[in-house]
Task: structure prediction
Amino acid sequence: MISLSFVVGVIGNIISVFFFLSPLSTFRRIVRNRSTEEFESFPYISTLLNSALWTYYGVTNPGSFLVATINGFGVVVELVYVVLFLIFAPPRIRAKTGILFGVLDVGFVAATVLVTQLVVHGDQMRITVIGILCAGLNIIMYGSPLAAMKTVVRTKSVEYMPFLLSLFVFLNGAIWTLYAVLVKDIFLGVPNGIGLFLGIAQLVLYAIYSRKPKTSDEWKMREGLIVSSSSSVNDQIQV
Result:
């Protein structure tokens, strides 16, 4: 008989697929405009790191096949996002993204695998160490949109915080928190519980600031940063 935890895990995988694919509209915009504009690369860097380590955790921990499969999918998708960022970001952001990718997604993951295989002895201890790392990084992944939330509050615009991403942060956190409770996995439960809370916070911000949407250009005009082409060179638009 199929267990409830398996059913919830499958639903979690389906929701996670949509979570990983939710930034597609953002990257279509980036490719179309050939610019990353004010979008942040760190959410994709941290999600790639998180997915890589959860894949390792799923492979190492017996009974965590569902965790391994969905995060393996996430590694592929997030890698594509990071590559697109490296292609279309301006030089300074491209350099920053490249350094973060090399240090976190390559260096840290490789170091984790080597240390846990060569230094940490015993399967259960290895699972515990990997689980603690994954839980901590999962919190960072869920917290990475905080920069976008700050931008929303500052500009009073949700332009750079896509609704679908916020929605699936909430749904992903909710379903995996339930799964963690069912299988009694604290390493899954704690970070996804925090993700659930942050997802709710993002949706609340979206509800507040989407009522009077402003694009980034409109916000800059409000701040007097756009110079009127019809005025003299020294005159700025005052709204």
About this structure: Residues 218-239 have pLDDT under 50 and may be disordered. Residues 58 and 239 are 55 Å apart (CA to CA).
